[in-house]
Amino acid sequence: MRALVILLAVTCAVTSSNIYLLQPVLDQVAHDFAVSEATAGLCATSTQIGYAAGILLLVPLGDRLDRRPLILALMGLTTLALAAAASAPNITWLVVASAAIGLLTPVPQLVLPLGVALSGQGTGRVVGVLQAGLLTGLLASRAYAGVLGEFAGWRQVYWCSVVLMIVTGLALVLRLPSAPGTEPELRYGVLLRSLPGLFRDRGVAGTCLAGALVGCAFGAFWNTLSFVLTRNFGFGPAVIGLFGLVAASSAMTSPMAGRLADRRGARTGQVVLITTVLAGWLALLVGQGSVWWFVVGTVLLDVGVWGNQVVSQALLFSRGSAEHSRLNTLYFVTRFLGIAAGSGLGTRLWGSSGWGAVAACGLLAAACALPIAVRAARREPAAV
């Protein structure tokens, strides 16, 4: 079982990395296609919107279908979308291909409830381990995208991901067991129509809304980071990509956030982690002229954002297992819509008012999330 959990963590890493490939090289895309930074930023925003749509339309199928063929099919289609992005002749093509990548890449959101169901271990612990894999891929993707983009161009970033997807897909063909859905009798339309009913639960709705607000704070940061580091400090794509490794502590602390949820309860976890997000944005605002303050702020922000996600998922997975894929759908649709909103709003605020406005947006979003998350956690058992 340990080997399978590791393979699932690697799968989360490889697939999640596809969502953030362009962020370190947005300046290159803007230059190559002779478009503005805001227009280039649409590629990242369309990926987030596509990802939210994919989670909404595809992840609920995990409660009905065998997840093995579903995961393998999505892996293959995502590989084709990555190849299309690498071959983009213009910015419109790249925006559409980016949306397709997002739409077809909700694999981690199928893998997370699958890992919990197969492992039989503590919910928070398993979610933490799988998310540690997800974050390792996310952070590594920013690093290799930045370095590879600087020396070989942004298109090679996508071709590299094509190779990683093929290798991971072959490993899953060999090792991933069959995992029939928990409610195979439900038709697809019934699955989708059941989502609003789940969202009417105040605990579920509060957890999802707080996740969207924290996601907004996250999206505003990472979609504008390449611009501020280029303009304020003169860094190129390689350094900007390596900046993602500054936040590697978030991958290491995700299992800790899971254990915190298991032992101390979701309410405590939400207070600790969303407060960490606020502290990160304060550091980024106060020290905007210092790269070292940016390092501190990035670490705090990522630890808080991803730890909050672990606690929120552990909270939702403490409910009935028959609903896990749909609960994950609700959480990540709202989460990534929040990230997409933050990405788009962040680039607009950067263009019109500068970094101070971006930081104010992040602070406000996190501050609004805190009471909502705490109130939602009160509606669940003290320890999940």
Automatic annotation (TrEMBL):
Report if keyword DNA repair is assigned. no
Question: What does UniProt list as this organism's lineage?
Answer: Bacteria, Bacillati, Actinomycetota, Actinomycetes, Pseudonocardiales
- Name it: MFS transporter
What does UniProt give as the signal peptide span?
Answer: none
Domain (Major facilitator superfamily (MFS) profile) ranges: 4-380
Organism, per UniProt?
Answer: Saccharopolyspora rosea
Q: What membrane topology term does the record carry? A: Multi-pass membrane protein
Keyword RNA-binding: yes or no? no
Q: Which SUPFAM superfamilies match?
A: MFS general substrate transporter
